[in-house]
Amino acid sequence: MNLAPPTGQWFVADDGQRWWFDSGSIALDFAYTGGFPGPEAWELWHGPEDIARWWRERFDVEVPVDEEEAVRARDLRRAIADAVLAAAAGTAIPGGAASVIDEAAARPDVPRQLRAEPAVSCERLLATIARAAVAALERPERVRVCGADDCAVMYLDISRSGNRAWCSMRRCGNRQKVRALRARRAASEITDDGASQPREEHHS
After folding, report:
1. CA separation for the pair 189, 195 (Å, rounded)
2. What is the mean pLDDT of the segment spanning 158-185?
């Protein structure tokens, strides 16, 4: 089992283009399976088996998920999303969201062990996710919204400098660079055109 799964996942834009997004936190990846408000296309969990698949892909573990556990997983997912939205907006985390996260985080998580296989269950995995959410939200100033005007994707800035500006450099970062370059070229052309215009002569 992988107790420190890598973060990040593929997203599909409205135009069908796939792009890689690293949220910086397994808790945000968890929330981005469908916890944030948005189109139905964001929803990746259509049944308990989808949640079990997510555990398998992220933690390399086979854990069955029943309907009751699926409800708890979705409740935690929405609570993390609500808390992240508040942190990104610089507002207080809603009490209901904080309670759901704290309740899950207070339960036993998946323990680290040297040789023995750790005890794993859906409840323990949810506790692991909740604790990751608490760790991320302890630094609310690092919860950011992508700097692109047409993107509202949020992430945890874990860079050493703390100046990550884009959800994805290859997507929004490059698009912003192209826009800035075009704007500079347009401004330069306007300046050059203005400078090339002959001045009117005034005769007394």
Report:
1. 10
2. 79
